[in-house]
Design a protein that fits this description.
Elements (H helix, E strand, L loop, with lengths): L10 H35 L3 H17 L1 H11 L1 H20 L4 H29 L2 H30 L5 H4 L1 H15 L12 H24 L8 E3 L2 E3 L5 H25 L14 H31 L4 H7 L1 H14 L6 H22 L6 H27 L7 H39 L6 H13 L5 H6 L4 H32 L34
Antiparallel strand pairs: 1-2
Helix pairs in contact: 1-2, 1-5, 1-6, 1-8, 2-5, 2-9, 2-16, 3-4, 3-5, 3-16, 4-5, 4-8, 5-6, 5-16, 6-12, 6-13, 6-15, 9-10, 9-16, 11-12, 11-15, 11-16, 11-19, 13-15, 14-15, 14-19, 16-17, 16-19
Length: about 550
């Protein structure tokens, strides 16, 4: 079959891509920026530890829960429309967060911000997928993916800088940015066609419940216990303080909800009755196997970003701003990969493999150079190599996943891919933070006994360091009686960081092995045919029978 050569993208299309990428950067930054501003928020609003935890995690839970629903809405009402509505919701809720008089209002604003973010991400993917074809499509996804990697790294830097003025600016800065991005989207993105159809309300409720409960369980497992309750869960005036962990119950309920969701979607697909997620998409090898790789990549990529700032601030004594500045090397590497991909002719699958190999190499190097007195430049070099890998892998794995998805299912396909990425990230953060703090605790027990402290004091200090995520180390170092304990705490935290780096590298190598199941045809930079030809116009295969 001979395809017509794809036309070169216009300047308007490239400017539209900038608008889409900035919108994605906005929602990714808001995931990481809160970690840096949380301390001044606690002081200013006099909130409890439970409220602080919900300020951190409510956004990510709602974000993950709604991705399949918003993906379907994107197909029905048009990607540009959903992108603009999502920006509006995100901007309005940022106003609420910036002006929040108390913890309850801030938590509510964070929940609603998650709704806006869940609208923006699948719509952005669908816009890139529909706007570009051929080689330009791979280049566009390189820009889109590099933006995600860079934004995740820049969030702590921006938060540290804004916290010097007021934590409220971490949310207030979103408002003018939303206005600029919305104006650029209206000017440079063509209106997306609407599709006749309906929303499967029951399926939407099942998917939101299943994904939301799964995200909650992955995020909260270390806090409340994986099997039995170790810390009470307080919601309003209710407290869950004993018996099976709420995390275990959430896992069970999530499995039941997602199982019922899959069976319902398979049944609707067999009847051609407008499913929320057409499970026949998983019969497309590039979509099915690409999403598996996406999930594993999320596991390996996001966990290390969660623990790196802790090590930089409390083991190496960086300020919040300096810790964020150290992560700029990651962002720089990500953008360098984006620029380099423009001149490369390799397939998207090959770029994913190169990226995963570079990510693993960067993390192995980070684990090897990590010490309590490591200079900044070996850290920056390791993070730069890691960032280059992120720029290749994160961008092109999306190209792999969506290359053969029919145009009228692009939003749903983007929703599934986004959900795989977010759940992989949540699982990676859960696994890596659990591993990090477990290793920190055991390392402290091994080292602190030799500091001359009594067993009781050693146990107490070890618990304080672990429960404070290391933030108590500077105070311990300032007291002559506990300065030795602070030194061994830094050593233990460094050992935990090195182990976490190597585990993340192993997960990324596992993702690299998983790419063997992606056929080269599925992900070439020019694989996507012109509209009206190729696999995107053929009927989807019948779904496999639902499990019984």
């Amino acid at each position: 079959m001979v395809h017509r050569p794809a036309e070169s993208p216009t300047s308007r299309q490239w400017f539209g891509l900038v608008a889409v990428s900035l919108g994605v950067a906005l929602i990714v930054v808001d995931i990481t920026i809160v970690n840096v501003i949380l301390a001044p928020v606690i002081d200013d609003l006099a909130i409890t530890a439970v409220e602080a935890q919900w300020i951190q995690e409510s956004y990510a839970i709602v974000f993950a829960a709604l991705l399949l629903v918003t993906g379907r809405l994107t197909d029905l009402y048009g990607a540009r429309r959903m992108f603009l509505i999502g920006l509006g919701v995100f901007g309005l809720t940022s106003v609420g967060a910036a002006l929040a008089p108390g913890g309850g209002t801030l938590i509510l604003s964070r929940f609603l911000q998650g709704v806006g973010g869940a609208m923006i991400l699948p719509a952005s993917l669908a816009l890139v997928n529909a706007t570009f074809t051929g080689r330009a499509r791979g280049q566009a996804f390189a820009v889109w993916g590099s933006t995600i990697g860079a934004a995740a790294a820049v969030g702590p830097l921006l938060g540290g800088w804004l916290a010097d003025f007021s934590w409220r600016w971490a949310f207030g800065i979103n408002i003018p940015l939303v206005a600029v991005i919305a104006a650029a989207a209206l000017l440079h993105l063509p209106a997306s066609p609407r599709t006749e159809g309906r929303i499967d309300g029951i399926g939407g409720a099942l998917s939101a419940a299943g994904l939301g409960l799964l995200a909650f369980a992955l995020i909260e497992g270390r806090t409340h216990g994986w099997l039995t309750t170790t810390e009470p869960l307080t919601l309003g005036g209710l407290s869950w303080s004993a018996g099976p962990s709420p995390v275990l119950v959430a896992f069970v309920l999530s499995a039941l909800a997602l199982g019922a969701f899959w069976r319902r979607q398979a049944a609707l697909a067999r009847r051609n009755d407008e499913p929320l997620m057409d499970v026949r998409l998983f019969a497309i090898p590039s979509f099915r196997n690409g999403n598996a790789v996406t999930l594993i990549v999320g596991l390996g990529e996001f966990g290390i970003i969660a623990v790196m700032p802790l090590w930089l601030q409390f083991a190496l004594d960086y300020s919040a701003f300096e810790a964020g500045l150290a992560l700029v090397a990651l962002a720089a590497g990500s953008f360098c990969a984006s620029g380099a991909s423009f001149s490369m002719t390799a397939s998207a699958t090959a770029l994913v493999r190169v990226g995963l190999l570079l990510e693993a190499a960067g993390l192995v190097a980070l684990g090897l150079v990590a010490d309590t007195d490591t200079a900044w430049w070996p850290i920056a070099l390791a993070l730069f190599v890691y960032g280059v890998g992120v720029g290749f892998a994160t961008a092109q794995v999306t190209n792999v996943v969506l290359v053969d998805v029919p145009a009228d299912s692009a939003g749903a396909g983007a929703g599934v891919q986004s959900a795989a990425r977010e759940l992989g990230a949540a699982l990676g953060i859960a696994v890596l933070t659990t591993l990090f703090f477990s290793r920190l605790g055991s390392g402290l027990e091994d080292r602190i006994a030799g500091t001359g402290l009594t067993d009781r004091d050693a146990e107490r200090l070890g618990a304080e360091v672990t429960e404070s995520a290391g933030s108590v180390i500077p105070a311990l170092a300032a007291e002559p009686g506990t300065a030795a304990a602070a030194g061994v705490a830094r050593e233990a935290m460094t050992g935990a960081l090195a182990l976490s780096s190597h585990v993340c590298a192993g997960l990324l190598l596992l993702a690299l092995a998983a790419t063997a199941f992606i056929a080269p045809r599925d992900a070439g930079p020019s694989a996507r045919p012109d509209p009206g030809t190729g696999p995107g116009t053929e009927p989807l295969p019948e779904p496999e029978p639902s499990p019984r």
